[in-house]
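Practice problem: predict the structure.
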Amino acid sequence: MKKHAIVTACNQRHESFLANNWYQSLVDNVNLADIDIVILDFGLSDWVKKAMPTASFLLCKSKGHIVNARYKELLRVVDKGYDQILMCDGGDIIFQDDISALFAENASSFRCVVEGSGSIRYDRAVVGRLASKYKKDVVKTIANKNLINVGFIIAPAERFKWLCSSMLEMLPSLDVWGFDTMIINYLLYKEGFVELPHKNNFIITNYWNEGVKVVHDVFLSTSGEVIPVVHNAGGWRVLRPVLGFGYKKGVNKLSVTYYLAKPFTRVANIILRLVR
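Answer:
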């Protein structure tokens, strides 16, 4: 039997969410019969590890921003013999239904969700700091494309090895912010990928035309279907569309950000286009 891994990275800042929401929703809703849970441990507390008894922890010593350092540490996971790996965020995602079938579908390719028109193009603010030998091709490749959300990517282990190595080669420093999205979008648009239905990484503010509703703390599509993976994305707390986001009772209230996301994103993208 082929063995797969679901991998995330976390530090103390998001450890409570990781244990009580990300992990709990994962073990409750996903068939993990042939899937290991691997946590890239950037300084987690001991209680967190005890709260996730079926996960394995890989102590990480790489310095720098965790969104970058996780790719350096992921290279240690890809050599452990896994067939497929899902690398996903651990501080703002919950699982509401089984996604284990994704590991067998299009198994030779990268699989990921392309964001909708609600995506804020942070890449425009940082592309000018990219090394000159990459800049022209990066801009040409991703300028007119919707962004791939890099918080949920599935691929064969060997393809992840290439992605991590290539990303780290292009990255100016592990300390910079915002480059991970831009570089991985560039690499995947050049390499090719299979686009997943966005219900498998539902970024709430990106799909204005479809909408979302919350019934008894469960996120549903407007047609009443349970959304398998819900992603309360946003670089800062004020940008996140759900208050009290999590996998438990008495949470998940749509915030004012959800309702203001459309005009805010348009204005933000105009500003970011000017600063490039």
